[in-house]
């Protein structure tokens, strides 16, 4: 992430190429941030590829770059859709960066949670067609990113899993993660899956409706482009108004309770018992490796 003199993050500064489409509308030919690459060809469909090794964790820096990228695309009249995927093998996103929630100050937790909210408000509320090409595992916050898109296509590898596994970490998915989940899979499946903190292998995720289709990994981007073309064949205004109608209540709920939600998160995550759970989880991840 590059920072301007004012301290405000400037996305992709320095390696942004601005082109002029035949109709005179400005088009970015290619934009590269440090944690994700973004490409908007003249087709009007952007591809956003996460590239934050080792596992595309959603750190404060990542979330900020993500939100800025979405804002740039949203404000670009030439862009009607975005396909979100990962450059890393086997991982779409490992979810929120746990180190951002461990051993930090209240101020840091506040800033971090506001960035998580901002990313979700932008993605879930986007006017663009959003397609997730889930080419690897996608736990918790990674699942939220995929669920916030209009359509999810996952690589059919049963080793890849997706779900809201917060309960396994000893933490609780906030109400807007839950609302997003319910809107995708329905109340009963969400209730069971959330309480158990389940990570569903790709075939099971498909059966539950958590992902819309499975394809061989090498066909993922081709299929995402075909789905995008299908969704873009409709007039934007009709699709956008329908999307707003379907999602507004859930978006408004967070907007109305944003500060309270931040307070709850900070209080919750600052508890010693929660800090202990998160530390133990990180240790478990490291042990599993060795
Ligand atoms: C009453 C209550 C009221 C209100 C509540 C209020 C608020 C709610 C409070 C909290 C809500 C928080 C919501 C949280 C959402 C989240 O997203 S939490 C994150 C969940 N993510 C996970 O559980 C994934 C964990 N990771 C994995 O399972 C695996 O790493 C993987 C499957 C993604 C990849 O496996 P591998 O390829 O085998 O890679 P490694 O496991 O070796 O990992 C490499 C490296 O990366 C580190 N790492 C992995 N995931 C994370 C992560 N999410 N954050 C930070 N770091 C991560 C891992 O430790 C390894 O590090 P090193 O050992 O190499 O240093």
TrEMBL record:
Q: Classify the main location.
A: mitochondrion
Superkingdom: Eukaryota
CDD domains, from UniProt? crotonase-like (cd06558)
Record field: catalytic activity: (3Z)-dodecenoyl-CoA = (2E)-dodecenoyl-CoA; (3Z)-octenoyl-CoA = (2E)-octenoyl-CoA; a (3E)-enoyl-CoA = a 4-saturated (2E)-enoyl-CoA; (3Z)-decenoyl-CoA = (2E)-decenoyl-CoA
User: Does this entry carry the keyword 4Fe-4S?
Assistant: no
Localization in the cell: Mitochondrion matrix
List the GO molecular function terms.
delta(3)-delta(2)-enoyl-CoA isomerase activity
- Presence of the UniProt keyword Flavoprotein in the record: no
What biological process terms from GO does the record include? Answer: fatty acid beta-oxidation
Q: What is the role of this chain? A: Key enzyme of fatty acid beta-oxidation. Able to isomerize both 3-cis (3Z) and 3-trans (3E) double bonds into the 2-trans (2E) form in a range of enoyl-CoA species, with a preference for (3Z)-enoyl-CoAs over (3E)-enoyl-CoAs. The catalytic efficiency of this enzyme is not affected by the fatty acyl chain length.
Protein name in UniProt: Enoyl-CoA delta isomerase 1, mitochondrial
